[in-house]
């Protein structure tokens, strides 16, 4: 029997799925909207508090991995096991599950034994909150010069870490946190849950 993705080492996965950066694809927004509708139909509206297109593919003009990142925020009373089961049945693959200090579950779609599919999604599930990704996205949407700087940083890091996704991601963290902090100051508590 052949190897499965779950049976591969990190190094094998990184070789099969290297860091790829492409110019912004206007279709990303449509991909997000279609997938958002599928997610809402799969999960049901009752537990959904908010759903957003995040990550570089949500920023027009920004170079990005050809991946649509989606953040789903659910009610704190949501049955996480039931939610996970629904998503697995809908074709989402569980990548990571953290429950402390808060729920942070990652799924993906579009990873195959032959490499990336035509459409690739990363899907993050969290309890309704005040998440950094939303502030960073909004800051880049407003500050095109910072988005351009971020694109240059990513291109340089891709050259260094093409086959090491963890290091690539970690190397971006300082930049992301710097501008997220500024965004939180500029935007106030725009995403804080209003009870």
From TrEMBL:
The keyword Transferase applies. Keywords: Transferase. GO terms for molecular function: transferase activity. The keyword Transferase applies. InterPro entries: GrpB/CoaE (IPR007344), NT_sf (IPR043519). It holds the Pfam family GrpB. It comes from the Bacteria. This is GrpB-like predicted nucleotidyltransferase (UPF0157 family).
């Amino acid at each position: 029997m052949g190897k499965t993705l779950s049976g591969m080492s990190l190094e094998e996965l990184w070789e099969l799925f290297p860091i790829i950066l492409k110019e912004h694809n206007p279709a990303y927004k449509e991909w997000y909207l279609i997938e958002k509708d599928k997610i809402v139909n799969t999960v049901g509206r009752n537990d959904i508090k908010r759903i957003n297109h995040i990550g570089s593919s949500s920023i027009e003009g920004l170079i990005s991995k050809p991946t649509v990142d989606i953040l789903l925020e659910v009610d704190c009373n949501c049955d996480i096991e039931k939610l996970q089961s629904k998503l697995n049945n809908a074709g989402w693959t569980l990548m990571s599950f953290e429950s402390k200090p808060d729920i942070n579950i990652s799924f993906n779609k579009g990873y195959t034994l032959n490499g990336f599919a035509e459409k690739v999604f990363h899907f993050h599930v969290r309890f309704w909150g005040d998440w950094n990704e939303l502030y960073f996205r909004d800051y880049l949407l407003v500050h095109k010069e910072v988005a351009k700087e971020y694109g240059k940083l990513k291109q340089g890091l891709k050259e260094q870490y093409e086959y090491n996704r963890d290091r690539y991601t970690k190397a971006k963290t300082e930049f992301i946190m710097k501008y997220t902090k500024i965004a939180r100051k500029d935007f106030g508590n725009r995403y804080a849950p209003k009870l």
